[in-house]
Write a structure and sequence with these properties.
heterotrimer, A mainly alpha, B mainly alpha, C mainly alpha, C: mainly alpha, Cytochrome C Oxidase, Chain A, 2 strands, Cytochrome bo(3) ubiquinol oxidase subunit 3 (chain B), Cyt_c_oxidase_su3-like_sf (chain B)
Chain lengths: 112, 209, 656
């Protein structure tokens, strides 16, 4: 992905990219497993309820998203200018707008 | 397009022309385009999530998700897809080492995991329909089947695509083109895993909570 | 057997209206004429090799423009039919059903199949030349985008003679557009036509973002890019963020209709309001998508014909980029009357007013560019000058509409109709016309006739005000949109008649443009300089029409408006900047896959529209097969040898 844009020239000459070690993938995998297990334990054993549970659930999901971005997709290693990062942030802002905006607008238009 | 290859033909004389931002590299440029495509796909799923969140309470007196979800199968799907995301990463590692055989083997394992994910999902859908929750049952189930089904469709497309890349790797070996294709498919696969995390959290976990 | 065929045909084809029979005959005759001309002159191979399979951005751009002008013709006819029906009270020229179909197709065609392709055409014709690139980032994808647009547009237009046109308004609000209330196939034509061309738009967006960010010639820093390039970047950014929402919205509507789901139905827990919420999340950014490039065009035109640098380059860049993001935060102003509560309405009223600020900034930038400039007024500049007052008034009425309480009065009235036509004709159409006139000599190597062009301009400009100013008053007098007729007692008679006259004046303006093009082709004077307007940006530094590789050697840029600065340096006795040595140029090969794949999409869409799975499934299989065929093809490019470059440049009168 990102780093190819700047290192692609070397690709053509058959050298290797400098990113993605076994270590980073294993760390990412273990963290993801943990972050999937936490909500399971909380919900299936009724440890938390209501808003607290929602916060923990969404929090673990967002954390896992970041873990995958960093350890699997190597977003941090992008060279400058960081167009991929910019587009990602912009996209996430729009996604958030779509979801939050729809919820807000539609609260007043509920049907059964 | 042209720039990159000018450089391939006459790299030394041209090298200094690329000091400014943006390297004219063909394969790198394609990776960037794919990244932007993934962002558009993010927004696609965002719209489906918004629809799901708004309509999920509208069961029209029919069954609710909390009543019908079989969490065991869903948990299995989650861990299978997570593992396949990891194995697709291992495939990229093999590629970087120039290990074609390892690369194809890890891709094959990823395909198998992906296929079992799809099998579980189809089984889940069939069971739901048998228990009286189809896409036409209520707004809630329409939104459920569309959101989860769209993700499943993405995974299925990814499977076909990955097999096509494996064949190409067999034919052409690891070169700049196949390298880019493997990079793209693994990125796609990680992305689908990320989407699934949110499906798992918002649809299933918050549904049964 | 024969009876079965007859039954089928009477359902399948649209019957009963003399206007449509006339159109049927015209379509068949045109098709026969085209096919026989191609066969007689033995042009099929030429057509296939030079145009249908081309991946050259310049040819794709030309095809976009031709398609867009054809669509402008059709959308314009729709408009004139409506104006004719409304000219006099209680006229029975069009029945209400026919009128519904016409305002629907007019809106869809003008926005999605006229403005969008004309915009993409200009992107294709200009952007690579302006940034010193030899093609777009993904030439294959570019061709695919065009053919998807084309097939989508054809599918949509087919509904006119087969199956029946959609008739639920240009955004097809449910529950009216649901199966229960629109059981015909027209609505499915709408969904599939837009869906197929929408995929193409999305890909064009990605394509040009990467082209602009990654393929600029050495030395062209972001803040040295021409303003049209900036406007394209901001428009494409909005495209990639907005179009996925449209895809989802239409897909959900289709699932409702096809699989009996309950997203937007009145029963089963569905909520039609959710559709309106979703579609405007795309729909509002969409109007900025089409207007932003027009701002870029005006910036180029005003700088060239004032012989001055654009005033306030940085503020212009900031205005363009901030609009492309801010456009995502105003969508609810399209449905203030939906009842989302005071907080929602207040928030979106304020965001709407805020977005008017960067737009106002640009108006001042253009005015200050002209201030103390060495002005000249050829046709592109005329359209620019016509645009400013028109857009200012359109913008001001937009701010009036953004006041939520007042909108309860204006909503869905002719006041609204007049407002958005003022920004879309005065902003978008005038802008793209300016662009077409301005870049025409670059594309074809000769200027369009100025005298006929001026006639066209004045007819359009006067016609516009005559047509739409009365509509503001009609709106305030209570005339609502989508009204197929009205009574004598309403007192709307005179203003409607005036409005109709204005509409026809614009129609005559269009005829003048067609005449102008034909006349200029016949009596053209070849432009041998490549720079007929004394331009400022890189596209004017190469021969017209541009050679297939655009730039024999890549220009090295050091300033904004680098070509203009270079000309000044040479005029003051400086030496032209040295050119690097020629090298073989790497080019993409033509491909037949885009047109075949888009045709498969067409077949699949048609199958789904009529619920013929025997047709839809093979169509989808064809799409998949084309994708795989492309993936397995590794032989996609070739080199132009140095000798051929030398020959081409010499033929264009350029010493190398």
């Amino acid at each position: 992905m990102a780093q190819h844009t700047n290192q692609g020239a070397h690709d053509a000459h058959g050298s290797h990219e400098a990113h993605g070690s076994l270590k980073s993938y294993v760390i990412g995998f273990v963290l993801s497993l943990v972050l999937t297990a936490i909500p399971l334990i909380i919900v299936l054993n009724d440890v938390l309820k209501g808003t607290a549970a929602t916060v923990v659930l969404l929090g673990s999901a967002v954390l896992q998203f970041i873990v995958q971005l960093v350890y699997f997709m190597h977003l941090k290693e992008e060279g400058k200018p960081r167009y991929n990062m910019m587009v990602l942030i912009l996209g996430l802002i729009i996604v958030l707008t779509i979801v939050a905006g729809s919820i807000w607008i539609m609260t007043y238009n509920k049907v059964a | 397009m042209a720039h990159s290859s000018n450089r391939a033909v006459a790299a030394p004389s041209h090298g200094d022309g690329h000091g400014h931002e943006g390297h004219h590299d063909l394969e790198g440029m394609r990776m960037m385009g794919f990244w932007i495509f993934l962002i558009t796909d993010c927004i696609l799923f965002g719209s489906l999530f918004a629809t799901y969140v708004v309509l999920s309470g509208n069961t029209a007196g029919g069954p609710t998700g909390a009543e019908l979800f079989e969490m065991l199968g869903v948990i299995a799907e989650t861990f299978i897809l997570l593992t396949s995301s990891f194995t697709s990463g291992l495939a990229v590692l093999c590629m970087n080492k120039g290990d074609r055989k390892g690369l194809i083997v890890w891709l094959a394992i990823t395909v198998l995991l992906g296929a079992s994910f799809i099998t579980l999902e189809i089984t889940e859908f069939v069971n739901l329909v048998h228990e009286g929750a189809a896409i036409s049952t209520s707004a809630s189930w329409s939104a459920f089947f569309t959101l989860v089904g769209t993700h499943g469709l993405h995974v299925s497309v990814g499977l076909v695509w990955m097999i096509a890349i494996m064949i190409q790797l067999g034919r052409h070996g690891i070169n700049s083109v196949t390298r880019r294709k493997v990079g793209i498919i693994s990125l796609y696969w990680h992305f689908l895993d990320v989407v699934w995390i949110f499906v798992f959290t918002i649809v299933y976990m918050m549904g049964v909570m | 057997m024969w009876d079965n065929v007859k039954d089928f045909a009477s359902d399948f084809f649209v019957t009963g209206d003399p206007l449509i029979y006339g159109a049927d005959v015209a379509i068949v005759l045109t098709m026969v004429a085209i096919v026989s001309a191609l066969t007689y002159f033995k042009k099929w191979t030429w057509l296939w090799k030079e145009w249908l399979t081309t991946v050259d951005h310049k040819k794709i751009g030309i095809m976009y423009v031709i398609a867009a002008l054809l669509m402008l013709f059709r959308g314009g006819i729709d408009a004139l039919l409506m104006r004719t029906q409304l000219a006099v009270p209680e006229l029975e020229f069009l029945n209400p059903e026919h009128y519904n179909a016409i305002f629907t197709t007019h809106g869809v065609i003008m926005i999605l199949f006229m403005a969008m392709p004309l915009m993409f055409g200009l992107f294709n014709l200009v952007i690579p030349l302006q940034i010193g690139a030899r093609d777009v980032a993904y030439p294959f994808l570019n061709s695919l985008s065009f053919w998807l647009f084309f097939m989508g547009a054809m599918l949509f237009n087919l509904s006119f003679v087969i199956g029946g046109s959609p008739d639920t308004g240009w955004l097809a609000y449910p529950p009216l557009s649901e199966k229960a209330f629109s059981p015909g196939v027209g609505q499915d034509f709408y969904i599939w036509g837009i869906q197929i061309s929408g995929i193409g738009s999305l890909m064009t967006g990605i394509n040009f973002i990467v082209t602009i960010l990654k393929m600029r010639t050495p030395g062209m820093k972001l803040m040295k890019m021409p303003m049209f390039t900036w406007s394209t970047l901001s428009s494409c950014l909005t495209i990639i963020l907005a179009f996925p929402i449209l895809t989802v919205t239409l897909a959900l509507l289709f699932i409702d209709r096809y699989l009996g789901a309950h997203f937007f139905t009145l029963d089963g827990g569905g909520n039609p309001m959710m559709y309106i919420n979703l579609i405007w999340m795309w729909g509002h950014p969409e109007v900025y998508i089409v207007v932003l490039p027009a701002f870029g065009i005006f910036s180029e035109v005003v700088a060239t014909f004032s012989k001055k640098r654009l005033f306030g380059y940085k503020s212009m860049v900031f205005a363009l980029m901030s609009i492309s993001v801010a456009s995502f935060f105003t969508w609810a102003h399209h449905f203030f009357t939906m009842g989302s509560g005071a907080n929602v309405n207040a928030f979106f009223a304020v965001t709407t007013m805020i977005i008017a600020i960067p737009t106002g900034v640009k108006i001042f930038n253009w005015l200050f560019t002209m201030y103390r400039g060495r002005l000249s007024f050829p046709t592109p500049m005329l359209w620019m000058l016509g645009f400013i007052p028109c857009f200012v008034v359109g913008g001001m009425t937009g701010v009036l509409l953004s006041v939520a309480p007042a909108d309860f009065q204006f909503h869905n009235s002719y006041f609204l109709i007049a407002h958005f036509h003022q920004v879309l004709i005065g902003g978008v159409a005038f802008g793209y016309f300016a662009g077409l006139y301005y870049w025409w000599p670059k594309v074809f190597g000769f200027k369009l006739n100025e005298k006929l062009g001026k006639w066209a301009f004045w007819l359009w400009n006067i016609g516009f005000y005559v047509c739409f100013m009365p509509q503001y008053f009609l709106g305030l007098m209570g005339m609502t949109r989508r009204l197929s007729t009205y009574g004598w007692d309403k007192g709307w008679y005179e203003l409607n008649l005036i409005s109709t006259i204005g509409g026809f004046l614009m129609g005559i303006g269009f005829l003048f443009q067609v005449w102008q093009i034909l006349h200029s082709i016949k009596f053209m004077e070849r432009d041998t300089t490549g720079d007929p307007w004394d331009g400022r940006t890189l596209e004017w530094s190469i021969p017209s029409p541009a050679p297939m590789y655009n730039f024999a050697t890549l220009p090295r840029v050091s300033e904004k408006d680098d070509w203009w600065e270079e000309k000044q340096r040479i005029a003051q006795g400086g030496a032209p900047s040295p050119r690097p040595k020629l090298e073989p140029i790497h080019m993409p090969k033509n491909s037949g896959i885009p047109i075949i794949m888009s045709a498969c999409f067409f077949v699949a869409g048609f199958g789904f529209i009529f619920d013929w799975l025997w047709m839809a499934i093979p169509g989808l299989v064809g799409v998949a097969a084309c994708m795989l065929a492309h993936s397995f093809n590794y032989n996609t490019d070739y080199y132009i040898p140095v000798e051929e470059i030398k020959r081409t440049e010499a033929a264009a009168g350029r010493a190398i």
